[in-house]
Amino acid sequence: MNLEESLESCVVRMMEVAAFNVSPDVTKALRKALDREESDVAKINLSAIVENIEAAKQERKPVCQDTGTPTFFLKIGEDFPVKAKIHEILRRAVRRATKEIPLRPNAVNPWTLENSGDNTGRMVPIVHVEIVEGNSLELTYLAKGGGSENTVQLFMLSPVLGVNGIKKAVLEAIYRAGPKPCPPVVVGVGVGGSSELCLKIAKRAALRPIDQPNPDEKLRNLERELLDMINSSGFGPMGLGGRTYALAVHVDWAHKHPASLPVGISTICWALRKSVAKVHSDGSFEILAPEVV
Amino acid sequence: MERHFRIPVSEEKVRSLRVGDVVYLSGVLVTGRDQVHRRALQYLREGKTLPMDLRDGALYHCGPIMIEKGGEWRVYGFGPTTSARMEPVEAEFIERTGVRFIIGKGGMFERTTEAMGRLGAAYLAHPGGVSVLATRSVKRVKDVHWLDLGIPEAMWVLEVEDFGPTIVAIDSHGSNLYIDVMRKAEERKNSILRSLSI
Fold first, then answer.
1. Which among A159, B141, B174, B184 has most CB atoms closer than 10 A?
2. Which residues in chain A are contacts of B67 at CB distance < 8 A?
3. How do residues A237-279 score in pLDDT, each as one tens digit?
4. What backbone phi and psi angles, to 5 degrees, belong to A122?
5. How far is B159 from chain A (nearest CA, A)?
6. DSSP annotation string for B34-69
7. Is the pLDDT of residue B162 over 60?
8. d(Cα B40, Cα B91) in Å, to the nearest integer?
9. Where do the structural domains in chain B lie, given as residue ranges?
10. Burial A22-61 (b: 16+ CB within 10 A, else e)
11. How many degrees, rounded to 5, is the angle at CA B169 between CA B103 and CA B11?
12. Distance, CA of A30 to chain centre
């Protein structure tokens, strides 16, 4: 098998694993949340969610009928032999995965409303590229549902508002989202950079495993404070009341223009479907996460 | 209280429900989201009949994944979509069709709540994303209408057994669980903001 074929197979496999499996760190957090909840309504919602995650794994069926918009974060080694062609290979893999798994076709032309039928289209799949050292390719795949993408928000704050302004923006975003993004959600917060960069790092931060703490102690404390603040709203699972609206808040940041304070807030539903893989230049590849038996 | 209903369901049964009750449904479930609402209302306003009578029935806000094998349809993915998108037209839809249950996720608001009280209908919240559990409850695909709208948008007629759990989130007495939760959250918001000294 040549490298291009390996890469295609790897992506199809990543998409399949993600469709059938909620990320294990998220599943663990949902189980913990179920133990903490007291109201019947919250317990019923979380029990059904946890039961559904097991059922999807056993029956090898999509966790949710919204199998998402295919989104990739790539780290391409400068000596990895395939580069510009990666985009075409990803499109091929997405087409194949959509047909073989199958996935729901979610790529629609915004003007004609025509559905391409295979999850590809203009600029879709969505691909973010980073060039790194080395000769391998690392891919992170996210199947992002429409409900929680619709509640993503951007705030261009006045810098005089400082950290309290950031906290207030996060709270505002959560109150506007309410029951819509299928809570419990994971919240990514991107601070600084620019309008588009803060949203990108917010989404990427939400993909950090929940059991992997932020290495920066100040941010770790801020994440904990934001999580408590969000959950004290009482929106709870599915917005029907309870203690758990968010499972985690993850913060990332970039330097910014002195006159700007961009804050991006990215919500991801409990059905957080992601996979990570590494492809080597000899065509071998490993699915690094999630571990599936 | 846990309740098990068979569709079609009477107004009296629906009126006996209160927010927080847990409901399981058996019988015929019809799917419909954005495009079904649009076309159905267009038909009814023009005096045309729908391909499927929804009186005393249940409408599920759902865009399923369906597979056709040997001329037969099978459900592969089946879960609720965000009901808020249908809020502007749901009151009229309930009034014109006589449907008793609207099932979805994420809630509906004042206009729908008012119509449900007046007409004797209820909104059942199905936990978002529990596609595999929902698929298990489907006994067979009975029919499909308006397939030209695309698979997720078409009107699928399904026979289900113990579909659920669903939670009564809007009853026919003016109570709306989403609005209650939202109101309490709003009350807490100021004290949260005060703690941030903003």
1. B141
2. 102
3. 999 999 999 999 999 999 999 999 999 999 999 999 999 999 9
4. -65, 120
5. 18
6. HHHHHHHHHHHHTTPPPSS--TT-EEE-B--EEEEE
7. yes
8. 13
9. 2-195
10. bbbbbbebbeebbeebebebbebbbebbbebbebbbeeeb
11. 70
12. 16
Check: CB of residue B50 under 8 Å from CB of residue B91. no
Neighbours of A258 (CB within 10 A): 6
Q: Which of B4, B37, B126, B173 is catalytic?
A: B37
Chain B interface disruption, residue of A238, A243, A244, A272, most B CBs within 10 A: A238
| Chain B: residue whose CA lies nearest to A106 | B152
Chain A residues lying within 8 Å of B197, measured CB to CB:
164
Report pLDDT digits (tens) over A142-186.
999 999 999 999 999 999 999 999 999 999 999 999 999 999 999
ipTM associated with this complex: 0.91
Question: Residue A34's closest CA among A264, A236, A175?
Answer: A236
Nearest Cβ partner for A102 among B65, B167, B188: B65
Q: How far is CA A31 from CA A246, A247, A270, B79, in A?
A: 13, 11, 12, 21
Domain ranges of chain A: 3-21+63-145+272-289, 147-268
* Strand, helix or coil for residue A7: helix
- From CA A11, how far away is CA B73, in angstroms rounded? 28
What is the percent of chain A where pLDDT is above 90?
Answer: 97
Q: Is B37 a catalytic residue?
A: yes
